[in-house]
Amino acid sequence: MLNRRILRIKAFKALYSYAENPSMTLAEVQSQFETSCEAARSLYLKMLAIIPCLTDEALSRIEAVKTKFTQTEEERNPNLKFVENAIAPLLKEDPDLAKILSRRKLGWENCDALIRNVFSSILTKDYYKEYMADPRRSLRQDADLFIRIFEEEFVDREDLWQILEDESIWWNDDLAYSLSVCCDTLRDLGRGRRWDLPPLYRSEITGSEESDKDFASKLVRTSYSCFEKYSALVAGSTDQWERDRLFTTDTVLIVMGLSEAKAFPELPLRVTINEYVEISKFYSTPNSRRFVNGLLDRLIKKQIEEGDIVKTEIID
């Protein structure tokens, strides 16, 4: 489920905690990292579980109209296509999914206002109107509809953000990625595949020989053990003016880049540098991209010259 970009980000957050609290042990840093990774999968599960809730909301609105004394033709003969979608039953009736949602307490109880607001928003969208107007029905069409819903209805919802923030401190920044995994699941369901809990690491899905779990574990261990040495290198490579303004985020990113270059000789230098430059765009200052790129490149090459870092690739 988690790719290497996400794993680097989660390792960065755990190492940042260590930089702010140097009394943390390696075991505590690793535990924080692992908890954060598993939390992303929990968020994926929670968001997937909203599909039956939206279907139930649609049904409850149809049932409520039946109590009206005077009904329109549309109300007397409602379009049941969404209510009868094939995706919601697949999820709602899956015993494995139900068990894990119950165990982790990942339901949408007490979130009726959010469900109502999301469904009301869906009703106004052209993609929903086109779906409802199409007389054809298929599993893939239902899956495609929910993919559109996941792509368009959740990312910028303030009411959803508030619920997730209140429920877990670990879900900050994970929503967009978890939604993308939900869309992958919906594509599989649309092809007739049964739901399965996605493996935590992407390499377990792709069948890659190189384990992302081992990669992440080694990155965290190396960054922790080399933190003091490499952070001193960062400080020693800046003048007094720069040192006074050096952000902890930039230091952690450069330390991690050096540690990754040390721990993985076969990984191209440019890949490592680009990854931490990209992370700096979202977690540091506007000037950090240039700073991290330049200093990380210079320090890695210096450590290669001194023999601390060994690369099996050809270095320009």
Notes on the protein architecture:
This protein is mostly helical. It contains 18 helices and no strands. It has helices spanning 4-20, 26-48, 50-65, 73-76, 87-92, 95-104, 112-123, 126-133, 139-152, 158-167, 175-190, 203-206, 212-225, 227-236, 240-244, 248-263, 269-283, 288-305. Helix 1 packs parallel to helix 13 (212-225), helix 13 packs across helix 16 and helix 16 (248-263) runs parallel beside helix 18 (288-305).
End-to-end Cα distance:
34 Å
Largest sheet: none
In total, how many beta strands?
0
Runs with pLDDT <50, length 5+? Answer: none
What class would the helix/strand composition place it in?
mainly alpha
Number of helices: 18
Let me know the average pLDDT: 93
Shape: elongated
Order of helices and strands: HHHHHHHHHHHHHHHHHH
| Helical content band | 55-70%
Task: Compute the CA-based radius of gyration.
Answer: 24 Å
Strand content: under 5%
